[in-house]
């Protein structure tokens, strides 16, 4: 199997950007939230891009580690695998947590209360003292440090996007033990996607949404995507079918259908199953210089994919402490901003937010994320080129 799979990196970058805008609509752009939802539910459904992360993670983990664990798991291999995953996700996570803690400490010393914009204010989330909420609390620090905060009663604490890292970390722990089952012939394991669909359907029925970010249900949500992604990676496509799938029309149709389901209101588990198809079809594409393929897989989208982890973590830091800092330094200007309703002004604001987020994420990727990962990995194991950025 080829070491790099076209499109999957690009998909991760697009997903991270959509999640960043999904959160920003609540903080910086609340005045356009409801008007936009009258035209499209794309942003309102964009919490589901996190499920695409789970699918991609399962697919990539299976792609990289199948040969390592197909015969079983021993303590040495498991520890090496977990160290590689730890060195990939923990350093940047703990740094963003420290930045948030530092800002909360400054707020405490200056008696600055929580501010999250007019929408969160309408929810009663304004003026709360530092370290008392709504997200940054002393009693949630320990669970965040050890990354098990997603299975607590309130996972949206500190870096609120990191709940998904918490359940993904738990998924990593059990993944090696699932590899022998996921590696069986597809016709024997057809029960796996059926079971995943049933679990997602049940979660959606019980919670009336799949925007589940805490408790055992959030772990089940992540594990479903992880397992389904791993199962998809094990599918062997016959050469004649591969030729049919590997073309611009099939790729375009699946992409359009995925976006269309995000645009309209459908059962969330159907969006995830469509994302699964998108991941599978994307993984079967060979790199080519065609208009459709190049549109979705180019230097820009691959770059977004490379910095996607930094983008995913830093956008929360830019949003929550960012708006509080603006409210301290220029409250009058911020009030004027929230009275703006012109669509062109909103678009300019979104583009500015995206630009700042990408700049910060690029600096983070080059000077924090990648150097720390490499340094930690040389302390324990020297990964192969295939594993270097996984």
Compact summary:
With 390 residues, the chain is mostly helical. It is built from 17 helices and no strands. It has helices at 8-27, 33-37, 49-69, 75-110, 117-122, 141-145, 163-182, 191-207, 215-233, 239-245, 248-263, 268-283, 291-296, 299-306, 308-329, 331-337, 343-380.
Label this structure with key terms.
390 residues, mainly alpha, globular
Q: Separation of termini?
A: 16 Å
Characterize the largest beta sheet: strand count, sense, and whether it forms a barrel: none
Q: Please tell me how large the radius of gyration is.
A: 21 Å
Structural class estimated from helices and strands: mainly alpha
User: Which regions have little confidence, pLDDT < 50, spanning 5+ residues?
Assistant: 383-389
Output mean pLDDT: 92
Let me know the number of strands: 0
Give the quaternary arrangement of the chains.
Answer: single chain
Strand content: under 5%
User: Can you write the helix and strand succession as a string?
Assistant: HHHHHHHHHHHHHHHHH
Helix content: 55-70%
Shape: globular
Number of continuous helical runs: 17
